[in-house]
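Handout, section B. The chain below has 473 residues.
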Amino acid sequence: MATISSPGIGSGLDVQSIVTQLVALEKAPIKQLQTQATSFQTRLSTYGTIKSQVSALGDAAAKLSNSSGWNAVTATSSNPTAVGVTAAAGAPATSLTMEVQQLAKAQSTASTAVPSGTAMGSGTMTIELGNWSSGSFAAGAASPVSVTINAGEDTLAEIAARINDAGAGVSATVLKDASGERLLLRSRDTGEENGFRIAVADDDGNNTDASGLSRLAFDTANPSGMGQTQGGQNAQATVNGVSISSASNRLTDTLPGMTLQLSQVTTAPVEIDVSTDLEAVRTNLKSFVDAYNTLNSTLANATRYDAGTKTAGPLQGDATATGLQNALRGMMRSVTASSPFSRLSDIGIEVKTGGALEIKTDKMDAALSKLDGLKALFTTTSTDPTAGGFGLKVKAFADGLIDADGLVSNKTASIQASIKRNGVEQDRINDRAARTEVRLLAQYNAMDAAVSKLNGLSAFVSQQITLWNKGGG
């Protein structure tokens, strides 16, 4: 007899429902594991946030532990339109007076006008950088650059492109107006030492006439060539009455840590001031306080129990989180070996109820007026790590927490291991339930087949009895 393929047909029982319920009982423990897995993931996420915030606190502390957090300066000019000034961190505080008599300029030349599209002859143009300030040309250190001009082909536009491609220290362009085209050349850099001359080897055999390629020469030996429209010159200025000269209008090494941009000749002295940027220091201190408060708030919310809503934070009862919270709050109340300030409260950073920090503006303003003492509170070194400056010890504490074998890193690794074990246990239960389902269905299939046989036999016996009774009558 064929095997029953749909459970329950032979017996009349709802076999699928029975098997489903039995398998559900087999899988019942997985609900608790799933709840645990959700809790583990929440805790892991929370520790990820804590790790990120510990890192941010360490970065804020690090800035206050070395000169970068204290050497910001601000630079001002009484006439920034004429003399702009910027100062790099660490530039010494100073005040000075500056006057500009002359701006640096680049040498410029222009050819005579020719009709548009005129071929300028052929030969070689040799461009050499140097100094014309003495009235004659003194060649510079750079090697001359030669540019070949083709016969009957190269117009001013093509010659300008060839010069620009040659990298000779000059730039070329073509000016067009009603009178025709002119070749304009200009030194790429300003200053007397960056002037130029152009010698021409004209294929027409005459290098000094007013035809052919000779028209594009610029040299005292060739009065028929290009004319100078601007001589190269250095900037001339005085600083506190001392004369200075510069090939550039941007002075980057004239004064330590300062960059001066000369833009106009002055008619009156310009006052330049460089001073410590106290607002930058205040901002760094506020960033330190904000980073700590963010971390403190996360720890407080994660470890608290809200009796009103009967809701526990994800790390409520977690000894690691509670210990970290207490350690941080204790550190903010600790003492350094510095003077005249030894506590954060001395400079207006006070610990409130709940562990948050609050800045008292009046006390911090007073502390900023004693910048060296304020700096010492964060940078003082000590043989006792707990007595070191707050920048140093908070940075060291933060690094220790998030290092590969640090407290927070170890806790994160522990939670990840728990999540992995939980997943393995869920897989084991699911596998066992699947095998149970296969076994139960096989058993009920066998039962259905047996019941079907018995039902068939019963029907046959009943039929025979009926026949017998009829025959006996």
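Note. The radius of gyration is 45 Å. Compare this with the example in section A.
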